[in-house]
Amino acid sequence: MTAATDEQILILLQQPDSREQGFRLLMSVYQERLYWHIRKMVGTHSDTDDVLQNCLIKVFRNIHRFEGKSQLYTWLYRIATNEALTFLKKAQRRATDSIDGQAAVFQLQAEASVDGDKLLQKLDAAIEALPEKQKLVFRLRYYEEMSYKDMSVRLQTSQGALKASYHHAVRKVEAALKEGL
User: N or C: which end of the chain has fewer CB within 10 A?
Assistant: First the structure.
C-alpha cells in the first residue's frame, strides 16, 4: 500500500472519534495479507483465524506504540509473526504432552509406500519437527520465496543467521524425507 494510505489510517486511528473507522480501514487494507502470512505458518484455517484475531486485538490496543520508523505493514507483519510463533509454541507443548500425536508421526514415517499425499504429509511433519526459528525461515524462504534481505528486515536478524537457519532446516527436512522413503 502507499504511504498516503498508511498516513490516512494512522491519522484516523489517532483521533478518538475516528479510531474505529481507522481500524476498519486498516483491516480492509491489511487483513488478507496478514491472514495468508499467518496461514503459511500455522497451517489450518481455524487456527489462522484465532491467531489473526489475537494479532488484530494487539494492533488495536497498541497502535499508539507504532513509531513510524518502518512501514505500517512491517510493524503489523512482526506482530502477526510473533502471535503465530506464540501459538506454535503452545501447540508444540500440547503435542509433546500427547503420546497419540507422536505415535501418528512415527507411524507416518514408518510406512513404506509413498504417494503424493503421503509425501506432502511427511513434508509437513518434517517442517513441524523443526525448531521454531528454522521452521519460520524455511517457510518464508521455501513457500513465500522471500529474500534473505527482506527476511532480515522483517525478523530483525542478520542475513547470515537466516542463511544458516535455512541451511540447517533444509538438511533436517531432507533427512526426514529420506528416512521415510
Answer: C
Task: Kindly state the helix (H) or strand (E) to which residue 127 belongs, with its residue range.
Answer: helix 116-128
Domain topology for 100-181: Arc Repressor Mutant, subunit A (1.10.10)
- Report the pLDDT value the prediction gives residue 108, as an integer from 0 to 100: 46
Closest CA to 44 of 14, 87, 89: 87
* 112 vs 73, residue with greater confidence: 73
User: Any residues with CB less than 8 A from the CB of 137 and at least 6 apart, and which?
Assistant: 151, 155, 162, 165, 166, 169
4-21 pLDDT, tens digit each: 588 899 999 888 899 999
CA–CA separation, 125 and 177 (whole Å): 9
As a CATH number, domain 1-97 is 1.10.1740.10
User: What is the phi-psi region of residue 68: left when phi exceeds 0, alpha when psi lies from -120 to 50, beta otherwise?
Assistant: left
Domain regions of the chain by residue span: 1-97, 100-181
Q: Do domains 1-97 and 100-181 have the same CATH topology?
A: no
> Any idea which residue has 533444509 for its cell?
170
Q: What is the pLDDT of residue 119?
A: 67
Can you tell me which residue has the cell 512491517?
74
Identify the sign of the CA torsion 166, 172, 177, 181: positive
Q: Which of 125, 19, 136, 144 is nearest to 86 (CA)?
A: 136
| Site of grid cell 488478507 | 32
